[in-house]
Amino acid sequence: MYRHSIRQQVRYGQFREYMEIAGAVVAARDKLGLTSASIWAPMVGAANEAVWEFYYPDLATFERENEAFYGDTDAMKAWRDLWQLTVQGSTRDELLQEAPNIA
What we know:
Layout: E1 2-9, H1 15-31, E2 38-40, E3 49-56, H2 59-70, H3 73-83, E4 92-97
Antiparallel strand pairs: 1-3, 1-4, 2-3
């Protein structure tokens, strides 16, 4: 299992607009039949941060879905619009694999 997380700080006063566009990104992913995204906001810690979470069964699925997403015109328009509302340089992208069960 793999977990892909994207953290980004939203510009102050723009969180509502960010979430509206995030809805368009999620809809574009759904239209393409890609893994569902969930969006989280920390209760404490960095202010105005949005955290995207995706879970993939394997790396091949992660790669295939990213290629489909980044190759889709509608998805990329929404994604680019979303990034206009983030603080430049604040985005952190992380891909974790499930730790092995060691006996």
